[in-house]
Amino acid sequence: MRQVLELLGESVQTIAYDPLGHYHLGDITLPIYGNCDRYRAEIAAITPTGAQELQRFERRMLSLYDALKGIPTLILRSDRKVLPVLLSYWPALLQLLPHIREIQGSVGQILDRDV
């Protein structure tokens, strides 16, 4: 949505929620923060191991994101004409090579490696 609004030169007034919400897990209420450090600190208060696992998962996903962010989502399409467009972003495609396994799988499979 942000990319479309930027492309159109538009902006929308927003209100920041802090925390974004809460997970209710039996007797435990976990606040959800957009700030990773605050979120991880809340998880660490419940389960230090869980916070370490989350950090490993974040690192893996951020590494994948760093490779993907060089390809604007607005140029993606679902037909064969996407190939010439993607090839014009060849540096980003090269960065994706080490992540082929993650791209072909699901986020759940990535999560299973870290948790």
Largest sheet: 2 strands, antiparallel
- Count every helix, treating DSSP H or I runs of 4 or more residues as helices: 7
Strand order of the largest sheet: 1-2
For the secondary structure, the number of strands is 2
Which percent range describes the beta-strand content? 5-15%
Radius of gyration: 18 Å
Which class of secondary structure composition applies to the elements?
mainly alpha
H/E topology pattern: HEEHHHHHH
Shape: flat
Low-confidence residue ranges: none
Mean pLDDT: 89
Question: Could you walk me through the main structural features you see in this protein, from its secondary elements to its overall organization?
Answer:
By secondary structure, the chain is mostly helical. It is 57% helix and 9% strand. The protein has a two-stranded antiparallel ribbon. Strand 1 (21-25) and strand 2 form a beta hairpin. The longest helix is centred in the middle third of the chain and has 21 residues, at 48-68. The mean pLDDT is 89.
Write the layout of secondary structure elements.
Blueprint: H1 2-8, E1 21-25, E2 28-32, H2 36-46, H3 48-68, H4 82-87, H5 90-96, H6 100-104, H7 107-114
Antiparallel strand pairs: 1-2
Main features:
single chain; 115 residues; mainly alpha; 7 helices
